[in-house]
From TrEMBL:
Keyword line: 2Fe-2S, Iron, Iron-sulfur, Metal-binding
Keyword Iron included in the entry's annotation: yes
Domain Rieske: 7-93
Gene Ontology molecular function, alphabetical: 2 iron, 2 sulfur cluster binding; metal ion binding
Protein's name in the database: Rieske 2Fe-2S domain-containing protein
Pfam family, one: Rieske
């Protein structure tokens, strides 16, 4: 395996502003991580709430934002997170943060993750 080998996830334009999209499902059918697009930038977070042992956060596929589409939400107990820093700003894990996942956007707008980083997600 080449350490520079990447897996393409999607194109930047495939994600609307303020929207989220999950990737790489585990055996239980939950995304391992998700990306959120804020001000044209992509931020990626592990789909694991810091409140309860890494519980999955979406209420349905690709639905990681709160109703106002301002914060990432954990739909188990309502924790809210800043989409660009991952910090919990309301809820039972206040002050804790989501785990950042390294993804890259190339000049053509392709969003990708290094193959060597994928193995660390399982
Ligand atoms: S598991 Fe996320 S807020 Fe409780």
């Amino acid at each position: 395996m080449n350490e520079f080998e990447v897996k393409n996830l999607c194109h930047l334009d495939d994600i609307e502003e303020g929207a989220t999209k999950g990737f790489l499902e585990n055996d239980a059918g939950h995304d391992l991580f998700f990306v959120v697009k804020i001000d044209g930038q992509i931020f990626a977070w592990r789909n694991a709430c810091p409140h309860v042992n890494g519980a999955p956060m979406a209420w349905r596929k690709d639905a990681y934002m709160d109703a106002k589409k301002q914060h990432v939400a954990c739909h188990a107990h309502g924790a809210l997170f800043e989409p660009d820093t991952g910090m919990c700003i309301q809820g039972p894990c206040l002050g804790k943060a989501l785990e950042s996942i390294p993804v890259y956007v190339n000049q053509a707008g392709m969003v990708s993750i290094r193959v060597t980083d994928i193995s660390l997600l399982y």
